[in-house]
Structures are given as C-alpha cells and as structure tokens.
Amino acid sequence: MPPESVRFTVLGALRVRRGRTELDVGGPQERAFLALLLVKAGQPVAVSEIVDVLWATDPPRSAVNLVRRHVGSLRRLLEPGLAARAEGRWLVRDAGGYRLVTDGDSTDLLRFRALREAARGDAGAAPARAVELLTEALSLWSGPVAAGIPAPARAHPAFDAVERERLTVAREAADAALRAGLPETVLPCLRRAAAEHPLDEPVHAALLRVLSAAGHRTEALALYDTVRARLGGELGIDPGQELRDAHDAVRREQRPHAGNDGPSENDRQGTDLPYVVPSQLPHDLPTFTGRRDELDEALALFDARPPHPGTVVIGAVGGMAGVGKTSLAVHWAHRVADRFPDGQLYVNLRGFDPSGAVMDPAEAVRGFLDALGVPSDRVPHGPDAQAALYRSVLAGRRVLVLLDNARDTEQIKPLLPGAPGCLTIVTSRDELPGLVAAHGARTVTLRPFDEDQTRAFLVRRLGAERVAAEPGAADEIGALCAGLPLALACVAARAAAHPHFRLSAVAAELREAHGSLDAFARADASVDVSTVFSWSTRAVSPDAARLFRLLALHPGPDLALPAAAALAGLPARRTRRLLTELTGLHLVTEHSPARYTFHDLLRAHAGELVHDHETVTDRRAALDRLHHHYLRTAHTADRLLAPNADPLPPPPAPEGAQPVPLADDERALAWLTAEHAVLLAVVATAAASGQPRQERLACHLAWSLEPFFDRRGHWHDGLTAQRTALDAARRLADPVLVARALRGLGRIEGRLGLHTRAVPRLERALRLFTELGDDTGRAHTHRSLGWECDQQGDLPGALRHNQLALGLFRALGDHAAQASVLNSVGWYHALLGEYREALTHCFEALRMLQDLGDRYGQAVTWDSIAYAHQRLGRHPHALLGYRNALALLRDLGVPYVEAEILTRVGDTQLAMGDATAARAAWEEALTLLRALNHPDAERMATRLKEDEEGRAGAC
C-alpha cells in the first residue's frame, strides 16, 4: 500500500494533514521549527538558524541536542512506525542542516508561488487569466503566515519575507484586475491583506484604486481617512506619496473605471443604496482546540436544509461565562466565511458587561448600517425605521452576522436579517428560549472541558513533552480551572512564559491563590475562577497589576493606549509596556491595533480588586484624568471640525490627562469615530457620578461632540448626550451650561425634524443668553433659528435672524463667524430675489474668507455670487463664479456640493444656448450623485431623459 499523502499549510494557521487526519504538531517550539522548514520551501535550514528561531538570543547549552529531539519527533509524526534514527522520506539532512521535502502538491506556499509565476507569464497577453491565477494564489492565505507560533520566532526574517511575497502578489492582482476591467474580482483578497497589514501603504493604495474602479468611491475615500489617522496615531507620520497619489486619483475621477459603465451591483439588486462589503470578524484563535464535536454540530446547522424553505438560519451558542462561547463562534464564522461573499458583520452586545453598559439594539443597528456603507443622510429617524432599512440592505445578499454576548431575545430581534441567504450566530449566557421558539434558532451548548479536552488544550499551548512529563500536574491544573478555557488560557500563558517552571509548581501556586467573584457564581461552576485571575495578576509587575485594576473604571467597551495612560497617570510608552505584560498573560486583549478590552469576568475581577486596593481618592483621581483626556481631545476635535463655532473652554485638567494630538479635521473625525461609543459612555458616567466637577465635565463633553454628531448624522446619539447635559446643567443650576444645552438640544431636534420642540428650546436659549449678556451665544442661536425658519419655508425670517447674528458678530469683532454669516445673509437675499444686496454681502464675505484662508467658505461664497449673477442674466459672470467654486471644492473633495454647482452650471449654459455643454455638466453631476448613491441622482437622471426626449421631439 502506498504511503498516505502529507499536506502542509503555513499560509495562515500552521496545519499538517496525513490523509484525512489533521496531526497535532506539538507545542510552540515544535510548531516554530516546522514553520521555519516550510517557509524555507525545500531549502536546507542550518542548525544555527533553527536555534535562532527557537531561542533567539538566549539558547540553552543543550540547544543542538534539543533540535535533534525536535527532528526525531517531527519525523515520527509524519511517518508513524519509522525506526529510531531513521531519516525517512520527509525530513532529511542536507548541507549541514535539515530540509523538508515538499512540492506544490504538498505545500500551500509552493502552490502559491507556482500560481504567481503562471500569472506573470499571462499578465501581458491574457490579463483576465492572470487575475484568475493571482486571486487563486491569494485565496490560499487564511491569515498571517505561520499564525500561532510564538511571536519572537515569527519575527525571524524568513517569515517576514513570505509576508512580503503576499503583499507583492496582492498589488500585482490589483494591477492585473484594473487592466482587465475586473476590479470586483480581487476585492475580497485585497481587503483581507489590507486588514492584516493595517500600516502597509502600498497595499492600501492598491485597495483604494480597486475600490474606486469597482464603483465604491465613497468607501475608498473613507478608507484613506482611516489609514491616514492610523499612520498618524501609531507611527506619527503622514501618508507617503503612493498612498496620496491613489487618494488624489479617487477624488479626481469622474467615472470609476472605463470598463465599469454598465449597471452597478446596486442597480442589479434593485436599490440605490450603496453597499460596502464588511469584514468585521475578530481574528480567529490560532490555538483553537478541544471543541471538535461542538464545532461539527455547529457546522451541521448550516449544512442542513432549513425546516421551512426561505427561512433565515440562526445558530445560538450558549453556556456559562468563560466557557469559550466567543472563541467557538468566531472559529465557526471563519470556517464558513467564504460562503458569505457579501460580508461578515460583528458586534459585542455587552449583554453581561459588569459596568451595566448593555448595548442598545438601535446602536448596534446604526453601527451595522455604517459598516454597510449607508450614508448618514440616507438613514431614517427612529430605531424601527433603521432596523427596517438594515433588513432591506441585506435582502438578496449572503451575509454572516455574529452577535456576541447577547443579553436576551429582545436585544437580538432587531439585528436579525429578514431574508434567506444569511447566517446569524449568537452567543449568550441566556438560553434564549424566545429565539428558539419564535425564530427557529438551533442551539449549541458548551460545557467546561473534560479531562481529555483540558489536556489537549494544554498540549496545544505548552507542548506534548511538557504535559506528558507531568500528567498529574496538568490534570490538577485543569481541575483547579474547572475546565474553563478562559481560566486555562491565563494559566497556560504564564506557564508558557516560564518554560523552566515545573507544572507541579504552577499547580501548587494556583492551589494557594485566593479570590472572589460572587457576581458570576453559578451552580454549575465548581471553582471560584477568580482564584486563577488572582494568581495571574500576582505574576505581573506591581505597575501592571495596578493598571489592570484601574482598567475596570473605564466606562466604555474598549480603550486606546492614550486613555489607558491617562487612567494610570503614566507616559504612553511606559503604559504600552504594562499593557504588553497584561496581554501576554491573557488578562487583557489587544483586539485591534492599540485598542484593548478584556473579558467581562476579568473586568468584574478587576472591579473587585480596584475597590479593595485603591482608595476612593485614587479612584476618583484616575477617572478625573481619564475624563479630562477625552474632554480635551474632543475639544480639539471640535475646534477643527467647526472653527467658526463658539467653543466652551474646558475646565483645567489634572496632571497626566494628556490629549491625543490631532493635526487636522480628518484625524479629528477618525478619532471621534473610533471613540464614539466610549465618549457616549463618558458623558453618561460623568453626569451620573453625583460629583459637580464631573457633571460639569459631562456638559462640556456633550457640547464638544455636537459637530461630530451633526457631520456624521448621529443625531439620536446627539439627542441623548444633549438631554443628559441639560439635566446635569439644571442640577448644577448653571445658567451658562443650561443655555448651551438648550441650544444644542434644539439644534439636534431640528435635524431630526422635531421642529415644534426645537424652536421653543432655541427661543428659551436666546432669552438666557440675552440675560447673561452673552452676545456670542445670542448670535449663534439666531443662526440656528434662521435655519429653522428656512426649513419651514420662511425665507424672510431666515434672513432676519442671520442679519441679527451678523450685527452681533460685527460688534464682537469675530471675523471668522462674521464672514460665514455674511455669505448666509447674501444667500437668503438671493433666494428672495434681492440679487444686488446678495452680491454686496457675498463679496464682502469672500474678501474676509480669503484673508482667513477658509477655502470651503470661499467655495460656497463663490457659489452664492454665481447664483446671483445667474439670476441677473449675467451668464458669463455666473460661469466664472461657479468654476472658481468647483476648483476649490474638487481640491477639498466635497462631491455633493460639487454636484449641486454642476447642476447650476448646466442651467446657466442652457440659458446661454449651449445645450450640449449643459448636458455635459448635468451628466457630470449625475456621475457624482450616483457615486454617492444620493437620492438627487434619480431626479437628475429623469431630467436628462426628459432633455433627450425633448431633443428627439424637436427633430
């Protein structure tokens, strides 16, 4: 009988299969050794290089002997029954080292390289075939090369070289797809490569170009903002020339790509809403093990036919806290993700968060709509309407939705897709009987590991030899952890960090530890899991242990490095080292670059410790630093987003509350977006503290967030924040804060169409500002009341309020605000047919805005000037003004306003008798509106059709 085939996988998690059986490679060193042989791809590897990978700069004296033991173990694994000291067919001596005998049929890396070479041969003559080969090559990757081996080993240049090969092929695939006119083909693999290399600028530049060519121009622009903010926040640098050039190309393009003139995917789906393919799944756990039966059961849920055709498939993973529900769900989702080409959505619903900050389903729905690329101006008001829109966007698509840590069925229901083709995976401690009864969910219940599963878990993390050497100690560790994967992971991390510790010593330490976690006590828990956590926290430095305790005070779902530094009152560099200590022992998780969270059991344990070890004064000081960190950064962002507004200067900050540096409005938006949920939690926590200093801070923070909520369309969140601020201001009996909160709440209510509430609030705010003698507050409130008049069709009222604001700004000497309101006054004069008055005000505004360097203000003022000339019949003057506006807007990247002005350019050219030029301008406007998926696109398309029919009739 011929020997069974052996296949190796290293492009992602390291795996070996002999026939149909997946082999257990062993512990961290064995896995690193095999991974090195694989990335060398049939080349001999010197013993000295193997020693470098396994022990870095501190090899033991017996390193060479240990390498030989690893060689023998690997040979016997690949060829069971191989005689002692026999070389075998797979791992042979060569050139003073060792070589793994592999080929393209046995190793994914060699298959990847063969496909790449074949594609390069076809690139010139057959670009479509090259795209096919390159996408097949990239599809072999399931994650970073050799995922799961120890980080020091993976830092070896051999692994980095293979990662660079992947990125090179990703860029080649992008170029080939653009030449072939097939951009959509490479988007999934290009997105994965960019997600796993978030700081690689060439890959992101390629992704920008492909997104634009595929018609996803809005997503491309948003991606650039995200990458730019990440480069600045993590590396302190601006994007390089290649990424900037790609961004500029996206902004300049009038059509996404010459080969993409046909109907878009959205047209084929029968909806004009945009659609971004989300990839939100957390990273799969490379060391996932011990749940084979449960995973088979989960996979069978989807493979089986639904009991009723056309139903949505829902799988619910249940079990006690710490039993591994999320790990199984994420692993399951990754296993089937390729069946859902329209994307994967993920949200942590915080159903059992110790802070009590359970996520409102409406917040989750809004987050999903953002992830799916729905513009804020297309999102309806009200949670029911938003949930209906969410279901509509998913209709006809195959999307995987992972709802993690759900509280109950009521929290889940608005997040369920409404049409077949989607898979929803839910995790919860609750049994969710309503989901089973009403929605046909099928359940997978996890229980603590049994003895065999526990031992397999420890073998995967510590190595088979170490566990086999002390099986009794390994079993005792499992018993002390009650088979809970979370507790076992903490213990295994500490043991792996100290390979010279005997497992019996680890078990003895654990046995002697003490702790309490009453809030999570369950009848089916045979151990106090805080014993494990207490033991783990004693293994870190005192400063790291203190940081762990203080993290429990943070009110949001996660936090960034600067926020952790503020909590600790330490420099960011020192705090990063402490967080590395905590992540090394699985006490904290870095779930995305420089953002940290921890399991709710660990949060609860930290919450007990912080009250036991930190005084009330120390806890309040830490929260004060944290809150001021957020306030000072939000205040900076406010000034960048709304430089003409009236800022509310923040109160003095304590030492250690350093803000995040924000260079421009793009970085301000990126920071606010990342911290959105946290900032809402800070407003609520500070307002509910019962401490006047913190209640005042809540008012200031809510005020600073107003421009962000307005620009992003998060008006419901703004409504909540401003109501909280108004309540706090009234408790403080501070008329300044009450007036600000009334105006902020009135503005938000106006955006939501609640004009009968907004106008009385703004009028009360105006009276308060008048009583306070605050002319700046009065002026801005008049502008808000002017906008309300405009919305109700009262143009004379809108003009009157803006004229009153102008008078106040002039008296105050506020030139920036004066310039802005001058244009508004001119615009309302123009709408009322008073064109000469309009031009007088607008030209005065233009001169001031040019002196101030406000390019956006100049652009909209040129638009007002051109409109007045157009209405006066001065068409050449109007065209000159519109072109000046367009030149500024195209440089700034404001496509909607650009489309509005192009429409007016077409109207002017038609009035001049140039119907061909008019049509060209309208078509250009239509292209922009379609790229934005704006409802005005339909009106413009109808106008162009009517124009064409009119021409045909005239013939």
Q: Can you give a write-up of this model?
A:
- The chain has 955 residues and is mainly alpha-helical.
- 63% of the residues lie in helices and 6% in strands.
- The chain is built from 44 helices and 14 strands.
- The strands form four sheets. The protein has a five-stranded parallel beta sheet, with helices on both faces.
- Helix 15 (361-371) crosses helix 16 (383-394) and helix 34 (735-751) runs antiparallel to helix 35 (755-772).
- The longest helix has 26 residues, at 616-641.
- It is globular.
- The protein starts with 5 loop residues before the first strand and ends with a helix.
- The model is unreliable at 254-272, 305-310 and 514-527 (pLDDT under 50).
Keywords:
mainly alpha, 44 helices, three-stranded antiparallel sheet, 6% strand, single chain, 955 residues, five-stranded parallel sheet
Strand percentage lies at 5-15%
C-alpha Rg (nearest Å): 31 Å
The tally of strands reads 14
**Overall morphology:** globular
Helix content: 55-70%
How many separate helices? 44
User: Which strand order spans the largest sheet, edge to edge or round the barrel?
Assistant: 8-9-10-7-11
Question: Which regions are unreliable across 5 or more consecutive residues at pLDDT < 50?
Answer: 254-272, 305-310, 514-527
Largest sheet: 5 strands, parallel
pLDDT averaged residue by residue: 82
N-end to C-end Cα span? 83 Å
Give me the secondary-structure category.
mainly alpha
